[in-house]
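quick q for whoever's on today - can somebody do inverse folding on this one?? i tried earlier but teh output was garbage lol. tokens:
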């Protein structure tokens, strides 16, 4: 909808869909954003709520897999949509506020 509205206003931007998936499996919520193919590094973030795996190729974020970590998924998905990455050390820190990564 955002791409259609922007193009109606003359932006002439191609629509680029970003892969995502979610599934509830009993008491587990699995969420995936992006594609983890071609990664050369995985950063694991463990919190009291759940765990997420962040896939990088060099310094570029490729995908996020989250289990019972919907905030991690949301931030990862937004970063991918914005074409931005996240500092791996910040991601690995369970005390870090990931939403701060979305600020310009």
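ok took a stab at it. sequence:
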């Amino acid at each position: 909808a955002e791409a259609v509205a922007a193009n109606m206003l003359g932006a002439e931007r191609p629509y680029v869909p970003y892969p995502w998936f979610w599934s509830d499996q009993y008491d587990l919520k699995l969420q995936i954003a992006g594609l983890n193919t071609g990664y050369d590094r995985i950063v694991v973030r463990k919190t009291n709520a759940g765990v997420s795996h962040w896939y990088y190729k060099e310094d570029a974020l490729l995908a996020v897999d989250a289990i019972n970590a919907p905030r991690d998924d949301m931030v990862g998905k937004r970063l991918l949509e914005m074409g931005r990455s996240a500092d791996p050390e910040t991601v690995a820190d369970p005390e870090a506020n990931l939403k701060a990564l979305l600020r310009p």
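fwiw The beta strands are 20-25, 28-34, 41-46, 51-57, 60-67. also The helical segments are 2-8, 70-82, 88-92. so keep that in mind when u check it
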